[in-house]
Specification:
Elements lengths: L1 H19 L4 H5 L9 H20 L8
């Protein structure tokens, strides 16, 4: 079961990187009109949130409680 969950986490990260790959550094860092953040910030926020939730749900010592 753990391997399945880790595979899902890896798949999300791989897919996120794949979605960002076609963009140039300039495009990744540009904040579109009407938005507060760039693509890099949004991708990092998504991955960090996923990791925090994983730690929280695992019950591992030192987990951050959201």
């Amino acid at each position: 079961m753990l391997d399945h969950h880790l595979d899902l986490l890896r798949a999300v990260r791989k897919n996120t990187l794949g979605l960002l790959e076609p963009f140039s550094t300039e495009e990744l860092n540009r904040i579109p009109e009407g938005f507060s953040n760039n693509l890099i910030w949004n991708a990092a926020h998504m991955l960090v949130t996923q990791q925090l939730l994983t730690y929280q749900r695992s019950g591992a010592p030192g987990s951050i409680v959201l």
